[in-house]
């Protein structure tokens, strides 16, 4: 079930805060604990806090640590991007969001503000973030100072950007629209949006756009002379007091901000008197320009007044001050209670979110991104720490991966090999890998060596193995590591960085053996493509499986999908789709499909089917319009090893996909094989897969 919503825009000053405040109020009326999260915040001075976060946490009294409410500042984000660490950005955002998801009933996520340079990049980050968090979005754009064409164009662009990345859009909001154009705005949005997407239009509320005296003081670096307690006064308009008082008084409007040189005592005192007079409108404050302040006698007179407004002294001249005040963009602050309440009441008047919140809470996310999948692997492995043996302990890739795994304390590790050689390699590589915290075993010097050899002899003596042969075999790291698993001294093994597949899995087949009811050991790769995770099987073990073996591989692969949080939609691949193809190879796939349907009628399966019809929705609907799998397959079963191995490598190389695996299926205990061309990431991910497999055994 969904536990989050993403508030997104593609421009600054869109009024996004209104949606966040209003939606937070609505959510707190529906559920007990609501968290708040901003993946990216604006840069703030040292010791200061993000205003958006402070406002939400303070006004709604959310008891959550400030540090939990964001992931990166804009500068940190740009620095990570420039260092080529975009993946780390998403990983950190997912991790912090998931922590809140575990602690709260619902999480409101507010996108970034698009201040400064790089707004296009920032928008892309928002789209990718929403996709990787697996939560739907509400898109808001401003209609202020835009033509209809410009406004609708921005709405379409935002909508298409999210839809193209397979992000669900729940609602679109046109904000800052003239009151008389609200219905037109909703009608125009409805013309290009599906019926299930809600549309709302909110008018321009001038009082929300007007800055407070506090914001003006900050923007002008002013000195407060009087009226500290009234700095939240909002300005309605502003004007320069340069004419004679009798003429200036006629220009005053409600909540006017008076801007005048600091030596114009007549304007200052006249404006203050007008403020308390029932015959004139109230003013919000007075700005004294030129670095001038009233004479002591005028100060004394002001101090004796019964009612006062903020009086601010600034260094700039009147002309510059006027221009700066006109350029100030108003924000909502934690102590802007009047503004916050005006914002929420406006939201509640024009946005009927109660039905939407019901949809939101019951929303079922679909699909899983590679980053979500990898995050899920780490979290699953952390649930129950397992002990994994790595027989190739002197391989650099193995050692570097072991260092990463130990750093996040996700598994216990034993390295096999000469202890001195391994320790020297750790030092040479400069790894932060404490030899005292990682177990290193030299098989021939091990206390368990004789016991392991005797056990192997007892297991294999009916096959003509004598004790000397067993001792000889036990000097081999693959046999020793596999025996550790058999004896319960380790939970799983990962090897193959320096050994063949046969060398890695032969010991497992000899005495780990297959699960009851399983006759075929097979493999799958988790192919992490740009926007989805697909599972490929079998691409590593069985050269030419029979129809029965292919069916068993399919069922094992489906069970692996379920174990890793993937709902399998199975495509039995061949060179033809449906009933059109002829020949022994396609008949074998067709027969295997029927066997699976008979044994596991609960599985969604289609076959034979071509690759393009399996994964491309338009091709799938064209070739097999009645299929629930065509165009949506996420488990692809290849008819033979030649096809599978070449396809996974082609997809990996041509698309840049991360291929996690192969993960072996069907054994009583997890033993997994690496490619001799594996990377450190391959080792890291395969160890995590193995640890998760061990949890279920």
Summarize the structure.
It contains 28 helices and 23 strands.
Key phrases:
single chain; alpha/beta; seven-stranded parallel β-sheet; 28 helices; P-loop_NTPase; EC 2.3.1.8; phosphate acetyltransferase activity
Protein topology:
Layout: E1 4-8, H1 16-28, E2 34-41, H2 51-59, E3 70-73, H3 74-82, H4 86-103, E4 106-110, H5 119-133, E5 137-142, H6 148-164, E6 169-177, H7 182-192, E7 198-203, H8 206-209, H9 213-220, E8 223-226, E9 237-240, H10 245-248, E10 256-261, H11 265-276, E11 283-289, H12 296-303, E12 311-313, H13 318-327, H14 337-350, H15 354-361, H16 370-383, E13 386-390, H17 396-407, E14 411-416, H18 419-429, E15 439-441, H19 449-460, H20 467-474, H21 477-486, E16 492-495, H22 501-512, E17 522-528, E18 533-537, H23 547-563, E19 569-573, H24 584-599, E20 604-609, H25 611-615, H26 617-623, E21 635-637, H27 641-655, E22 658-665, E23 671-673, H28 680-695
Parallel strand pairs: 1-4, 1-5, 2-3, 2-4, 5-6, 6-7, 9-10, 10-11, 11-12, 13-14, 13-16, 14-15, 16-23, 18-21, 19-20, 19-21
Antiparallel strand pairs: 8-12, 17-18, 17-22
Helix pairs in contact: 1-14, 4-5, 6-7, 16-28, 17-28, 19-20, 21-22, 23-24
Please give a structural write-up.
It is a single chain. Helix 12 links the parallel strand 11 and strand 12. The longest helix is centred in the first third of the chain and has 18 residues, at 86-103. The protein starts with a strand and ends with a helix. It is built from 28 helices and 23 strands. The chain has a 7-stranded parallel sheet, with helices on both faces. A 6-stranded mixed sheet has the order 20-19-21-18-17-22, with helices on both faces. It has a 5-stranded mixed sheet with strand order 8-12-11-10-9, sandwiched between helices. It is of the alpha/beta class.
